[in-house]
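Ticket opened by: R.M.
Priority: normal
Category: complex prediction / small molecule

The reporter submitted a protein together with coenzyme A and asked that the result be attached to this ticket for the collaborator who will pick it up next week. Submitted input follows.
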Amino acid sequence: MKSSRIEVIRKADARDVRALAGLLRREMPTELRGLTIYDCHGVENHVLANIDRGAAAPVNYHVAELDGCVAGAIEMKRTEEIQFLQYVAVAPEARGRGVGGRLLAAALSPDVSKLRLHVLETNALARSWYARLGMREVGEVGWWAGCLPAPRRETGFVLLDRAGARAEWMRLGFTQAVVEAHGKRFAVGVLGNDWLRFGAWELVRQAALLAEVDAEWPGRKALVLESGRPPEDCRSRFVQVARAFVMEGELAELQLSALKR
Ligand SMILES: CC(C)(COP(=O)(O)OP(=O)(O)OC[C@H]1O[C@@H](n2cnc3c(N)ncnc32)[C@H](O)[C@@H]1OP(=O)(O)O)[C@@H](O)C(=O)NCCC(=O)NCCS
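Result attached by the on-call engineer:
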């Protein structure tokens, strides 16, 4: 009987890595999984490296154990201003008994007053769950997939720490490439063997920036996560593959008690 099962909510440790990464991966929509780090071969190394760094890590993990097995996991990212719920998942057989809420309560840091998350438009259950918790929709982000214009070499654009980024990509299957140009830095995510991930339309229009990244990771498609629609010159090359809502809440106002205990 489910009510008699022994449940423990705790910080994740090294022995949880495989089950935790597997659960988060499995519960992601299949059509989008390949556009996340959870489809990359080294995601377990990434999780383990964050667990090993403890409180100093930018990302931390908690798990819910039911009868000794990992049945829920949460990934939280924290900066000084905001905590970001990257993903929470509970195994189907353990849902509907408040495990997700207890994971969230355990993962929230009392020192950072604001919580933010992205939830897919199609995930009605999670959206109403977050709304019940007191989170409000404050914006949206489109996921756009498409192809890049031809790269064009130009002096003044430099891929920083080329060797380090390459080594990380080989170890994890993903990395962040940083290109410096005219005193500014631009970040581009390298995801698996197929994708470059951009956080702004202006980046996919910069042929010289693309040339620096393309020299190291040639022939990739582009994934753009942006609130705005594609600019005129990108419109015919990109299709929207998903839409997420940005939700926010002040910790002091969250109704954690509204979730099942
Ligand atoms: C969203 C999620 C983490 C909630 O975890 P949970 O432990 O089931 O949370 P709760 O027990 O508080 O239930 C939340 C709601 O799920 C629904 N639910 C209840 N029983 C359920 C069951 N057996 N199976 C599926 N959903 C159920 C109900 O709408 C419930 O609301 P209620 O309190 O009014 O009954 C979980 O559904 C999940 O892992 N979903 C897939 C991954 C996902 O979408 N994550 C969020 C990404 S933004």
